[in-house]
Amino acid sequence: QVQLVESGGGLVQAGGSLRLSCAASGRTNSISQMAWFRLPPGKGREFVAAITRIGGTISYLDSVKGRFTISRDNAKNTVYLQMNSLKPEDSAVYYCATRGLRDYDSWGQGTQVTVSS
Q: What share of the chain in percent tops pLDDT 70?
């Protein structure tokens, strides 16, 4: 089992920046990929970004490309999401998740990001 703890959310004005962190503990050697998802108010959960533990292959939601950057520190078992040029539509609860061989099966508690216009 992998435990995840997110931090770094908050309230920011449009155009501002935030950096989210997610620290993993437990069976971290089982992790193949770490990702960020978000749950906007009144909408379904959506994938934001992911990075593989080995090789660092990265993927992004189209609407965040060029604004968000995902990175990892394997020594600290931590993944980051640097969010720049934030927009009100980025407001959501952001969740960190990890996967081993199959689906994402470990999730953090979520951190609120609110972008005011």
A: 100
